[in-house]
Amino acid sequence: MLDCWMAFDVAYTVRLAETLRPYRLKWIEECLIPEDFDAHVALRQRLRGRRLRPASTGTPTSVPVGGQPPDRRHPPA
To answer: Which of 7, 27, 51, 72 would staple 68 via disulfide (CB 3.0–4.6 Å)?
Structure first.
């Protein structure tokens, strides 16, 4: 598994996947910006037929600003 911190574009991710193919990686985590849906579709199409899957995107956006879970930022009234 690679965790890429949303640093790649589609072309670079595909090149990286091809380069690392001999290592039999199972997935690339957070290779694209989570909100770029078109890029995710394009990447999925370009990686079709390979075992390597782009996966698990958006985890940085699941924690509110400040890194606190919602129940700590806004305690119940």
So the answer is: 72
Helix intervals (H) in 1-77: 10-19, 37-46, 70-73
**For the chain, percent of residues with pLDDT exceeding 70:** 68
User: How are beta strands 2-3 and 53-55 bridged, if at all?
Assistant: unpaired
Token pair, residue 57, equals: 């995107």
| Distance in angstroms (rounded) separating the CA atoms of residues 2 and 28 | 5
Residue 18 CA: distances (Å) to CA of 21, 51, 70: 5, 11, 40
Whether the full predicted model's pTM is greater than 0.85, yes or no, is: no
Helix (H, G, I), strand (E, B) or coil at 33: coil
Distance of CA 75 to the CA centre of its chain: 31
Name which of 53, 56, 49, 58 is nearest 13 in CA terms.
53
